[in-house]
Amino acid sequence: xxxxxxxxxxxxxxxxxxxxxxxxxxxxxxxxxxxxxxxxxxxxxxxxxxxxxxxxxxxxxxxxxxxxxxxxxxxxxxxxxxxxxxxxxxxxxxxxxxxxxxxxxxxxxxxxxxxxxxxxxxxxxxxxxxxxxxxxxxxxxxxxxxxxxxxxxxxxxxxxxxxxxxxxxxxxxxxxxxxxxxxxxxxxxxxxxxxxxxxxxxxxxxxxxxxxxxxxxxxxxxxxxxxxxxxxxxxxxxxxxxxxxxxxxxxxxxxxxxxxxxxxxxxxxxxxxxxxxxxxxxxxxxx
Amino acid sequence: xxxxxxxxxxxxxxxxxxxxxxxxxxxxxxxxxxxxxxxxxxxxxxxxxxxxxxxxxxxxxxxxxxxxxxxxxxxxxxxxxxxxxxxxxxxxxxxxxxxxxxxxxxxxxxxxxxxxxxxxxxxxxxxxxxxxxxxxxxxxxxxxxxxxxxxxxxxxxxxxxxxxxxxxxxxxxxxxxxxxxxxxxxxxxxxxxxxxxxxxxxxxxxxxxxxxxxxxxxxxxxxxxxxxxxxxxxxxxxxxxxxxxxxxxxx
Amino acid sequence: xxxxxxxxxxxxxxxxxxxxxxxxxxxxxxxxxxxxxxxxxxxxxxxxxxxxxxxxxxxxxxxxxxxxxxxxxxxxxxxxxxxxxxxxxxxxxxxxxxxxxxxxxxxxxxxxxxxxxxxxxxxxxxxxxxxxxxxxxxxxxxxxxxxxxxxxxxxxxxxxxxxxxxxxxxxxxxxxxxxxxxxxxxxxxxxxxxxxxxxxxxxxxxxxxxxxxxxxxxxxxxxxxxxxxxxxxxxxxxxxxxxxxxxxxxxxxxxxxxxxxxxxxxxxxxxxxxxxxxxxxxxxxxxxxxxxxxxxxxxxxxxxxxxxxxxxxxxxxxxxxxxxxxxxxx
Lengths: 287, 251, 330
What we know:
The complex is a heterotrimer. By secondary structure, chain A is mainly α. Chain A has helices at 4-33, 40-58, 62-83, 93-115, 126-129, 141-163, 165-175, 177-182, 187-213, 219-234, 239-259, 266-278; strands at residues 131-134, 137-140. In chain A, α11 packs antiparallel against α12 (266-278). Chain B is 34% helix and 24% strand. Chain B contains nine helices and ten strands. Chain B has helices at 44-52, 74-79, 97-108, 123-135, 151-163, 181-193, 207-213, 231-236, 238-243, and strands spanning 6-15, 18-28, 33-37, 59-64, 67-68, 82-84, 169-173, 199-203, 216-221, 224-229. Chain C is mostly helical. Chain C has 16 helices and no strands. Chain C has helices at 10-18, 23-31, 34-38, 43-65, 74-90, 95-117, 122-142, 144-147, 172-193, 196-206, 210-213, 218-244, 254-267, 274-288, 294-311, 315-327. In chain C, α4 packs antiparallel against α12 (218-244) and α5 crosses α12. Chains in contact: A-C, B-C. Chains B and C meet through α2, α3 and α4 of B and α1, α10, α11 and α12 of C.
């Protein structure tokens, strides 16, 4: 029989994987273009509502909605990038923060208007809802699925970045924008594609999150704080950093709430502050 | 024999496998007019960043007037008399020239902490700032916001800011960079008129300027000192010419 | 001083002229007296506006002048509010000493956190201010035995000001007290901005890289202004505890920090009056639209933010000064 700490670890890693999927897009786009997009979780929320919409109105099976959550969010983000974000690449941190917070506020209102303010239930397939007993631990099937999805996404992302030409362009642009465009890399297009992918992943994360943490219009802000913590602790522009930080934060949060419930969310804020003061660029950040 | 104004011993730095400074030894005697030349990417600006403390070397020492300043923060080096200008204008765009130079003078005089006194109280500091600007022919435009000044004037303001710190050693990073031919003369007149007590090291690409103003030339290639000597020696050195193959003048 | 040195040179005269009191400022401050005579039923709201304006002024000092983006400024406001409330509960209810107590608590917190804040910039700095604010919010939540938790602080007992002016529902004392504190602090802030220290802060904002290159100890400057700003935010927090006799957890919340940022940007940061104008407009608007559901209120705030960033980057005062500059003959 395994002691409960393994259960806590398992749940923490599953939660961490969810945070990773939600955060990795923001980390890479921040590292790439230094653009602070605080509407990132609004995109995640959009993906969640796409899934809810398809299930409730068209009775799509859960898994079929996931690619749609990704794609619709990616396309919407392209529209925003073209129309609004492009103007602010050279703007100050403050302006970017304010504009994107404004968009997040607007998204909350639109979500409330279209879907109401209550949590949205969805039906995942029956086999996903159960759990099985392994060595005395309750392994929830859905959480295992999350870990699997997270692992697959990590592998795909790392492979793309390391082995494809597109990945090389992203790496070059993150490293040194001026030199990359001097080498003929179309930095703006690289960024647009990366931004779309990152936002699409956020949308996928939002859809996956429904079963674990629920979905309501305040999602845009509630999870923004966690995502920002993961991104700043992991280091901007780093996929591995996001993964490490997400798991660290996920485990700390679950462990904190399990072992010392009076502290609540206190623990992850302390972890974040401690890490940032030790390494201001984050665990895997550079410069 | 008095200590040199500025010296580095074995200064080295690398970013991972990229070596940007390789065991650099140089000595600037007081009142020197030295030029630092070399092809693009040789590490000239990096060397200035190392000397002023914006970068931390992996090895080596920097000695200012006999005092080891290797561990000092950039602002402390400035207070001990080491100032620099930037190749790309690094100015206070929203302030006007008078405010900018006054700020530098006030910081030097340790008056910047006085939040209870109106700034006009510091008459001597303000007038000193105006004098510096007037000497650099910026007196007539000193009430205009820096971002509205023509580029050549901004380059002069770069120098004014450095002079306001009353340096003993001044490092000029391509003072006339980007300035059209007609105006670069103004800048070099200013450089030439600087006090003989001031020790100068300037980075420059224009060989005419280098040969006109420098008494000694240091050639930097690939982060290391390639050679150094008098202008005549450097002009005659075939190795230097090879390094500058095809380049006679900055263009 | 001899007669000869009484004539000041042109550059000194120019800088002095920049700091002169404009007639429009007199109009502004006289206008703040209007609610006493013409809008007595709105005195409680006016009190809230004055307090929020003071809070916004404190954020302007670090954001508009030193360029520090803080998402956790409510930490100082809330800490001082609780400190002043607890002071009245356990020490005595005299308001002025309570105000000093609250301000001192916030200043101490500001001084301690200034060491961390001064070391960072950009996203790391934003995250650190956010993290410190959230930490304090959670602490307030968890320390229910001290703060009263979600019920708010109980037992706040404020004596009449100068033994005579009671803090009652009419609001005359409340607004008079808050307005007086706002004005006095404003004069101090104005003096600071127009001092050599104010110039150094603007230097940090305009180009933080150049500052060490002119020998400026930027971190020491930032620590100083951060502490001062925390103290002023603390004064605002103490005022709210004293004038309303309530202290709730929302005084420490992220929402309060974010709203403050919106108000300051709306009015225009770096212009001293921007926070005051922004706070007034925001609070009055919120009072007028208090009937609508919160998410729709946030919808309009969102639209406002997008519009301000794209069309009015220097806020309302910035936009007005641009129009003024175009209309004036030069």
